[in-house]
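From the methods appendix. Each design record in this collection lists the tokenized structure first, followed by the designed amino acid sequence. Records were kept in a plain field format so they could be parsed without special tools. The example shown here is representative of the layout used throughout.

RECORD:
FOLD TOKENS (372 positions):
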């Protein structure tokens, strides 16, 4: 999209202090729009400044806004984050699943709480530094992959709806990360080479096991082979994910090869962590999965069975699959439906609680939570 083609608009940019949102703000200001910035400060807890250095990020965001000549507000959505994102995050771990909080964070905070705030401030649009694109045609709004295939973030945005997309701009969606950093360097932005943020959305980088233990009681138990042979002890099923190799602390075992061990399954009822040897052990691969519901970005419901492609994790190559609706579906409504997704090729480390996201070439169709 050429942002110079949009009528002059009031746009509020979510400024993280990073290079992506900084360049997004510049591109919109340079296109002649009235641009303001908002820094979302959404976590209030112990060691906030140690693990999620908001003060440093605010300082970086302010420096960019000063250079660009735009106003920056700091807005706290901590209550909304706790209620809409973090409570769900804990519930999923409590149930033995591995959630992806970034997806819910985008839907509920960045493109709901922030969007509501911007509307109340009289903004026409919000903008973020996501590597994605939005397109409107005769059938409605569509979410497209970012041009930089290594940075495309449509996977994390698949839970948005058309109304959210209609008021959201992704100015760097047509650029590569290299182009973004190079432009920031040319502009003299102090954060042009700043490391990309990692860790839990808005909570930051911290020792995950210690952090999670503050909120959920750990239940240690047995680590076993699929046939029940005990190999060691785990610290709590919530600390492990399917396909994990590190941290199992299983040494050499008599009668076993030296091949590394991987988490293949969590036996929630028996509190067992089931592991197998070898990166390509058959137990690590699944031909199909179940999701209880699928969120479709565009309101035009597809017909089933539907041949498409999907990702079960970020940065995975698109995988050919067929979506079958098992029950509860009508052409007007999919609430309460159950879907079985069958892949052409078995998929490694399919993880309950993570998202499966569907694509038609560059168009992100939507997605759902992997149940089993």
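DESIGN:
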């Amino acid at each position: 999209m050429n942002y110079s083609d949009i009528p002059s608009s009031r746009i509020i940019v979510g400024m993280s202090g990073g290079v992506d949102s900084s360049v997004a703000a510049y591109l919109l200001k340079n296109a002649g729009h009235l641009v303001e910035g908002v820094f979302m400060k959404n976590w209030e807890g112990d060691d906030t400044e140690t693990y999620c250095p908001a003060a440093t990020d605010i300082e970086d965001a302010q420096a960019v806004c000063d250079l660009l000549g735009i106003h920056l507000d700091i807005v706290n959505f901590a209550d909304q984050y706790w209620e809409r994102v973090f409570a769900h995050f804990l519930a999923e771990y409590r149930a033995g699943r591995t959630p992806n909080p970034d997806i819910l964070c985008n839907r509920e905070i960045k493109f709901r709480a922030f969007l509501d705030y911007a509307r109340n401030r009289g903004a026409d649009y919000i903008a973020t530094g996501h590597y994605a694109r939005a397109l409107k045609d005769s059938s409605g709004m569509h979410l497209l992959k970012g041009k930089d295939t290594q940075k495309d973030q449509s996977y994390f945005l698949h839970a948005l709806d058309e109304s959210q997309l209609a008021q959201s701009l992704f100015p760097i969606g047509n650029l590569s990360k290299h182009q973004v950093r190079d432009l920031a360097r040319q502009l003299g932005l102090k954060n042009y080479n700043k490391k990309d943020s990692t860790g839990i959305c808005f909570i930051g980088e911290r020792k995950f096991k210690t952090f999670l233990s503050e909120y959920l009681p750990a239940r240690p138990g047995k680590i076993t082979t699929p046939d029940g042979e005990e190999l060691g002890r785990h610290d709590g099923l919530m600390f492990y994910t399917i396909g994990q190799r590190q941290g199992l602390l299983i040494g050499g075992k008599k009668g076993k090869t030296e091949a590394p061990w991987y988490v293949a399954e969590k036996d929630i009822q028996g509190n067992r962590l089931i592991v197998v040897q070898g990166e390509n052990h058959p137990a690590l691969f699944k031909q199909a999965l179940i999701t209880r519901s699928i969120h479709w970005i565009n309101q035009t419901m597809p017909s089933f069975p539907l041949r498409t492609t999907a990702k079960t994790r970020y940065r995975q190559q698109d995988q050919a699959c067929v979506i079958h609706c098992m029950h509860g579906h009508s052409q007007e409504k999919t609430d309460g439906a159950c879907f079985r997704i069958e892949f052409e090729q078995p998929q490694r480390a399919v993880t309950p609680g993570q998202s499966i996201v569907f694509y038609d070439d560059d168009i992100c169709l939507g997605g759902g939570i992997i149940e089993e």
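APPENDIX NOTE: The chain has a mean pLDDT of 89.
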